[in-house]
Design goal:
Length: about 150
């Protein structure tokens, strides 16, 4: 699994003109699932994200996690995180998991985040045409891949 974690001062997801999630300070997490991913990948990433200390303390040092400041989180499925761009100009998404595999793992990831944070993340709808708005704070943007846990 690949994620892009963005620290935001606000973020929202809108589908067909209806807002499905909105937060102020917190994290926007874009999630890409590939065929070889499993529940262990989702569990590892959710634990890392829950404890990621990227929010400033009273001195502006990144010492606080999402849990420490009781901030919001939105999770959005993003199969394009697995785009292959080596050949030609049209990205290939052959490594991205098919919906029958990806949807249950996406839901499991959200459930794991909820268990770790004590609150349900806001979400979009898997596979929908979503309009994601955000104000990146910092900017702080972190890439993580469960295949590269070092």
């Amino acid at each position: 699994m690949r994620v892009v974690v963005q620290r935001v001062s606000s973020a929202s997801v809108t589908i067909d003109g209806v807002q499905t999630a909105a937060i102020d300070t917190g994290l926007l997490v874009l999630v890409g699932i590939e065929e070889s991913d499993a529940e262990e990948d989702a569990a590892w990433l959710s634990a890392k994200i829950s404890g990621l200390r990227i929010f400033g303390d009273e001195n502006g040092i990144m010492n606080f996690s999402l849990k420490d400041i009781d901030a919001g989180i939105i999770v959005v499925s993003q199969f394009t995180l697995h785009a292959l761009t080596k050949k030609g100009n049209r990205p290939s998404y052959i490594k991205a998991a098919r919906p029958e595999k990806a949807i249950p793992l996406y839901q499991y990831f959200i459930d794991q985040l909820e268990a770790g944070l004590g609150k349900r993340p806001g979400t979009g709808i898997f596979g929908a045409d979503m309009k994601v708005a955000l104000i990146n704070d910092g900017p702080v943007t972190i890439l993580m891949d469960s295949k590269n846990k070092s």
